[in-house]
Amino acid sequence: MHMYDIIQKKKEKGVLSKAEIDFVINGLMRDEIADYQISALLMAICLNGMTAEETADLTLAMVQSGSVADLSPISEIKVDKHSTGGVGDKTTLITAPIVASLGVPVAKMAGRGLGHTGGTIDKLESVPGLRTQFSYNEFLKLVKETGICVASQYGSLAPADKKIYAIRDATATVDSIPLIASSVMSKKIAAGADCILLDVKTGNGAFMKTIDDSICLAQTMVDIGKKAGKKAIALITDMNKPLGFAIGNSLEVIEACETLKGIGPKDLTDLSIELAAYMLFLAGKGSLEGCRSMARDALYSGRALSKLAQMVDAQGGDSAYIKNPKLFKTTQFSMPIRANQSGYVHEMDCSLFGRASSILGAGRDNLESDIDYAAGIILHKKTGDYANEKDTLAVMYSSDEKKLLEAKSILESAFALSPQKPPSTPLIYKVIS
Ligand code: URA
User: How far apart are CA 254 and CA 259, in angstroms?
Assistant: First the structure.
């Protein structure tokens, strides 16, 4: 078999066999195939797509490139959740403790920020002392004792995805349904849970900009999950505006704690309860309506907040920050963004909010860069809100004054104001099960 022939076949819209896909992934892992040949194949896949069978074969080959976490020492049904990436998306910090407080173990491996989107691990590491890197035995012990652990994903899970993602990132081949589906599902299958809830973001801040593409991605991922013997459900949720008002690591932890106290933003509270309800439903905890009411009760009773504090302590962090978020360090500098005319906020470009937040210090320029955990943005107005000229639309926070000026013009262009009130959009567009 030759890599040249495989590239040629996909260039001509051919369907790759399982043997050809295994040849590519094995060759990649053994460094027997050059990156430029992998890049050419990825571009051909990006342009010509893959069948459902090819996508499933690619996913399973990526799973087999590394180890698969054995969570069988935890006897209960384990449910994992994955978001395809959004701005201000701190739902894991809310849903995971809700679900764990109701007796469903959460053994979650999460990632760092990617592009303009934030990552749960970076958010959690803004809590002083909190660790996210554990050996397999430590991870299992934490889940058994506390019912919850959110850890950094091991490099040994789906390592082919790591190599392929780095090439995709540098070759404009990220936004392809078979490549995103295989990337996400290879990691989720390798992470070992029995059930997977997928939050597929749609809109200007998501990888998938249209509902049709989002449905196709969601269906592809649910089908792969089922083929791998997992129960999977996907929710298609809105990412045409950031979730909640806070963007940036500790700012998002603070907002998550407020939500767990029952005083969070409505969109974030509603979506978190719905995601938690679907996780409980997947774990067999009852009817969807029953699971919704259990999730609501766990949140409004404060039990989920106590579970988050318990998790933070168990992972070496200081839970005083969860109980009293005022302890989080604030940045030295801040600057408001003001409306240059009166009108309704008609549109928010989420990817620009993510970009501006990253420039302020909340994201990384490269894998080695340090994060300013307190940096970010607090929104004062969101789509549909009315602003008078000079009203504050958002406030930027950074420990580096120069970065405020750099992010200012980006944020100003992220808000579009108009005399007409825009139609409201749903938070959840569709459920694929
Ligand atoms: N998240 C992933 O893990 N992979 C992708 O390709 C896109 C989003």
Answer: 9
Ligand 1 center to residue 89 CA distance, Å? Answer: 15
* 115: CB partners within 8 A, 6+ apart: 85, 169, 174, 354
Q: Which residue has the tokens 């090439």?
A: 167
331-418 CATH = 3.90.1170.30
Closest protein CA for atom 3 of ligand 1: 184
**Among protein residues, the one whose CA lies closest to atom 6 of ligand 1:** 180
CATH architecture label of 79-157+173-323: 3-Layer(aba) Sandwich (3.40)
Residues forming the active site: 82, 161, 168, 183, 187
Q: What is the pLDDT of residue 366?
A: 67
pTM score of the predicted model: 0.94
Query: If DSSP codes are grouped into helix, strand and coil, which group holds residue 166?
Result: helix
Q: Of the residues 207, 214, 220, which should be mutated to test ligand 1's pocket, given the most ligand atoms within 8 Å of the CB?
A: 207
What CATH code would you report for 3-49? 1.20.970.10
Q: How many residues make up the chain in this entry? A: 433
β-bridge mates for residue 106, sequence order: 148
Q: Which two tokens stand for residue 239?
A: 């990412």
The DSSP-derived string for 342-358 is -EEEEEE-HHHHHHHHI
Low-confidence ranges of the chain (pLDDT < 70): 114-116, 366-367
Task: Decide: 396 and 334 in contact? Cβ < 8 Å.
Answer: yes
Q: What is the pLDDT of residue 175?
A: 87
Instruction: With beta carbons less than 8 A apart as the criterion, state whether 432 and 233 touch.
Output: yes
Parse the chain into domains and list their residue ranges: 3-49, 79-157+173-323, 331-418
Looking at this protein, which amino acid is placed at residue 59? Answer: T
Amino acid identity, residue 184? V
For 320-352, b where at least 16 C-beta lie within 10 A, e where not — what string? ebbeebeebeebebebebebeeebbbebbbbbb
Can you read off the two tokens belonging to residue 232? 């999977």
